[in-house]
Amino acid sequence: MIDSADKTPRGKPLHSMFAAVPRRYDLVNHVITWGFDERWRREAAGECLASRPGKVLDLCCGTGDLALNLARLDEGNVELTGIDYSQQMLDVAAKKAGPLAERISFVYGDADSLPFPDGCFDCVGISFAFRNLTYKNPLAQRHIAEVFRVLSADGRFIIVETSQPGSTLIRGLFHLYLRWFVFRLGNLLSGNRGAYHYLAESAACFYTSEELKEMLVAAGFREVSFRPFFWGAVGIHIAIK
Asked: Is there a domain that residue 172 lies in?
């Protein structure tokens, strides 16, 4: 199901980029991660469901992969919602959902003003979009505050995102991979040079796991842990309200 609105967010420099990439968005994601993005999202979905939540939000859901993983892993007891500010992405998500569409409410909305009441969700998950909400984003603190607001007491915020490997050598190789392979292949497959230049640079310059932990603790989360994958180039952050 989709609840949409005919509007385009103002003052959102990334909006036009995400409105332009949906056609080959999933393909490029799978290719540049060698298919591991699907595994990482399944792991994140498992973490979202580990506390047996009643209601889960897939924040910045894009084409719906995290929400779909949640629907497949859950036995039908969880109320699932996905929200994104790109109607084009939501259209792709609804089409991909197929028979699972009745399990998920896809909502058009913005992360800096979530259209949900306080304490509405037991868990909020976000897959490879937290970087967009926080990297050089003047609304970063507001985005995190909105997540905190809509979470119930003891609610969990699950973030699967790129990070920075602890090893200087591996970090250097990871940055080279981003700027040489990811940027060029993303541009070639999608035809959107700006989108994949942004992806490569934002991932190369993004926070370490400790810096992200400090950000979440400063926002009020009482406990934050990190599960690294690929020598820390990617990982799952688990924050508890």
From this structure: no
Give the model confidence (pLDDT) of 64-108 as tens digits: 999 999 999 998 889 999 999 989 899 999 999 999 989 999 999
Q: Are strands 79-84 and 55-59 parallel, antiparallel or unpaired?
A: parallel
Euclidean distance between CA atoms 202 and 178, whole angstroms: 10
CATH number of the domain enclosing 68: 3.40.50.150
**Residue 198 carries which DSSP code?**
H
How far apart CA 68 and CA 237 sit, in angstroms, is 20
Query: How many angstroms separate the CA atoms of 212 and 216, rounded?
Result: 6
Structural domain boundaries enclosing 130: 2-15+30-163+207-240
The contacts of residue 168 (CB under 8 Å, 6+ apart) are: none
Say what the pTM is. Answer: 0.90
pLDDT averages per 10-residue partition of the chain, 241 residues: 45 51 69 91 97 97 96 92 93 92 94 97 97 94 98 98 97 95 83 80 96 97 96 97 97
Indicate the number of domains in the chain.
Answer: 1
If phi over 0 gives left and psi between -120 and 50 gives alpha, with beta otherwise, what is residue 25? alpha
